[in-house]
Design a protein that fits this description.
Elements (H helix, E strand, L loop, with lengths): L5 H32 L3 H27 L14 H30 L7 H28 L2 H29 L6 H28 L6 H12 L6 E10 L2 E10 L5 H18 L3 E10 L1
């Protein structure tokens, strides 16, 4: 897999974040227009959801921008942890928005505060669904390409808005056609809100694991061992440790070599191991090799 430079990652992440920001501002405005003139409280609430997406896209961009900063005296391994921190903030925002939507939906159901929407609300919601899905696809493809947790988190937030708009479309359409089903919109919105909360929980757990330094799958360690053992002079590899710093990882390992080697020869083998791992294992920025006699 081709390794992207930090500058390339930043440019891709910035593009995704700005598309999210301006796209959601546009969607928020037209949904608000449709909700007001179409007399639909559901579409007005959906416009608020779109405006909230602007905040998460801004947080995403700030996290990626901070993570791009070079290592310094106080951050020798760089600022990559700014990305999972940003992803964690996005997950909390998702949880709060999901809770608020659930509360509003429950209130409407209990009080029976239903309104019959106009056709403009349906047309605008259909357009918003198609446009939002495009934003989601662009953002998720970019996030996976550059392996950025906050960009991926932002994409899932876009996806939550997409599904919310689908439920709004269902509720608005049925409510417009049949007064007996005016309750369907807030009822379905409640379940979508629970889904949004679940997404926020899953993303939060993933980013917490990243910040806590949880080891990746055994496949990654096995690949690193295979790459290290392929270097001439290496007799064995053990005690592999992997710690992620944002999208990049720090790898330390113990390498066994012939006990009769000079310090110069052992150092050369260690250098070759470090270089091979950085080149052959994706997203590895730092490698520390501890030499031991075989």
């Amino acid at each position: 897999m081709e390794k992207l430079s930090k500058e390339s990652r930043y440019k891709n992440a910035k593009k995704a974040a700005f598309i999210g920001i301006w796209g959601n501002i546009f969607l928020g405005i037209i949904k608000l227009f449709a909700g007001v003139f179409g007399h639909s409280t559901a579409v007005i609430a959906d416009s608020v959801h779109s405006f909230s997406d602007v905040l998460t896209s801004v947080v995403c961009w700030i996290g990626v921008k901070l993570g791009k900063k070079r290592p310094d005296k106080y951050h020798p391994y760089g600022h990559g942890d700014a990305e999972p921190i940003a992803g964690l903030i996005i997950s909390m925002i998702l949880g709060m928005i999901g809770f608020e939507i659930a509360r509003e939906s429950a209130t409407e159901i209990v009080l029976g505060q239903f309104a019959r929407p106009g056709v403009v609300a349906v047309y605008i919601t259909i357009f918003a669904i198609a446009f939002k899905y495009w934003i989601y696809k662009f953002t998720i493809d970019t996030g996976r390409k550059i392996k950025s947790n906050p960009v991926i988190a932002d994409a899932y937030h876009h996806k939550s808005d997409f599904y919310t708009s689908l439920v709004v479309l269902l509720g608005v359409s049925i409510s417009m056609l049949n007064k007996s089903f005016l309750w369907l919109d807030p009822f379905a919105g409640f379940f979508v809100a629970l889904w949004i909360i679940k997404i926020g929980f899953d993303l939060g757990r993933k980013n917490i694991k990243n910040l806590m330094g949880e080891m990746p799958t055994d496949d990654v360690a096995s690949h690193i061992r295979h790459v290290a053992e392929s270097v001439d002079g290496v007799k064995g590899v053990h005690n592999i440790r992997i710690h992620y710093i944002g999208p990049y990882s720090y790898v330390s390992l113990h390498v066994n070599v012939d006990k009769g080697l000079t310090i110069k020869d052992a150092h050369e083998i260690a250098t070759n191991v470090e270089s091979r791992i950085r080149n052959d294992v994706s997203d590895v920025s730092f490698v520390s090799v501890h030499m031991e006699p075989a």
